[in-house]
Amino acid sequence: MEFTTMFSQNGKQLTVLDNFKFKFKYESKISGYKTWECTNKSCKAKLVFNKEKTLIQEKSVLDHIHEADSTIECQAVSNSIKLKISESNINEMSSKIIRKELRSLENDTQLLTNDFSYIRRNLYNKKTKYHPPLPKNINEVHKALINMNITTNKNENLLLINDKETNIIIFTCLTNLKYLCSMEKVFMDGTFQFCTNFFYQFFVLHGFQNGIYTSLVYALLPNKRTSTYEHVFKKLRDACLTEGFVLNPNMFVIDFEIGIPEAVRSIWLTSIIRCCNFHLGQAWLR
Hints:
By secondary structure, this protein is α+β, with helices and mostly antiparallel strands. It has helices spanning 72-84, 94-104, 113-128, 138-147, 174-181, 226-242, 259-267, 277-285; strands at 4-7, 13-17, 20-27, 34-38, 46-49, 159-163, 168-171, 185-191, 201-209, 212-221, 251-254, 272-275. The strands form two sheets. A seven-stranded mixed beta sheet has the order 6-7-10-9-8-11-12, sandwiched between helices. The protein has a five-stranded antiparallel beta sheet with strand order 1-2-3-4-5, with helices on one face. Helix 1 (72-84) runs parallel beside helix 3 (113-128) and helix 6 (226-242) packs parallel to helix 7 (259-267). 17% of the residues are buried. Pfam families: FLYWCH (PF04500), MULE (PF10551).
């Protein structure tokens, strides 16, 4: 008889025999025998092992009143993937992790669409254990970011500003700042409807080159005041200067937020300000 070991969704160890799963029930204090019962509550099948982990057949019941579990293969893949998740790869795409695992298997594994959904869900649950709990207020947001090492795939720091005084958070990296400084024209856009909790606005700076728009800077803002935009622009300008870059675009293309042009003029006196046609159309519709 060939026994294998796997884990339930709750992380409890299971013993598998002929595609039937058994969970640990108890250990005898007198004999030291360990009894494992079928995971199907209505089934009386059980396995009894001695201290040497050898099956005692005369005490075991191997007849089941139900069919073997058809999801064993799926659960085995899920178990294997979960065991390989660590802090070093929690940011790797789930689909990539699953493909790696399937390629490493010796035997052809036949999985259905529902199996992949099950594996992805378990993988997501495993990853969340390495992240802090969801913050309940803005102070917890700042605290969580301080404790997190947020980097890009090039190992560049992605968190530029985490200001607890102004409640402004800016995400960008060295590569993006360098690219931003090479732009003759910078596009700015803010969204209020899809901003995360505890913040008022999600503000983004884009570059445009070779016919492609690229998001380069992301900021979470507490309001839409001119002083807030000025603070963001100054932090970006100073960060670029620190790295030896000069952020001085010829033109800024903006939406119709009143505070943005005033803030731009206070930092870049010679830059041209243009309003976006898309946002102009939205304003007309309103």
